[in-house]
């Protein structure tokens, strides 16, 4: 669909072999987390995802988009240290906001960016943020419910 869009050029997709079931189980044991069933099934089909595309302006392709899902071996926990590579960049602790801690009404509860949550990087977003797998209520050996968040 993307390739047929007007102005889109140079769509590249990197095909990857499926992850082995024992690799996924090892990741879960190592991180004391149970991967969501849909993400686990994704890794059993392909061990990560990478697609980029450009747009043509004046017949010159210009890089525009990138989508990534890290392989299971690169699905690493983010710590409280800087989540970006730039000096003076924000840390996860900087993102912690004491206001509106709990969900109210129709708003879901925000994830905490400290020891209350476990956060694993799915997509580094070329340094412009991160898409992460977030376990909001981290309890050693019992972390199950998760969601995907953009930081």
Automatic annotation (TrEMBL):
Residues 89-113 are annotated as: Disordered. Residues 104-113 have a biased composition (Basic and acidic residues). SUPFAM superfamilies: SMI1/KNR4-like (SSF160631). InterPro entries: Knr4/Smi1-like_sf, TPGS2. Residues 94-103 have a biased composition (Acidic residues). It comes from the Eukaryota. This is TPGS2 polyglutamylase. It comes from Corythaeola cristata (Great blue turaco).
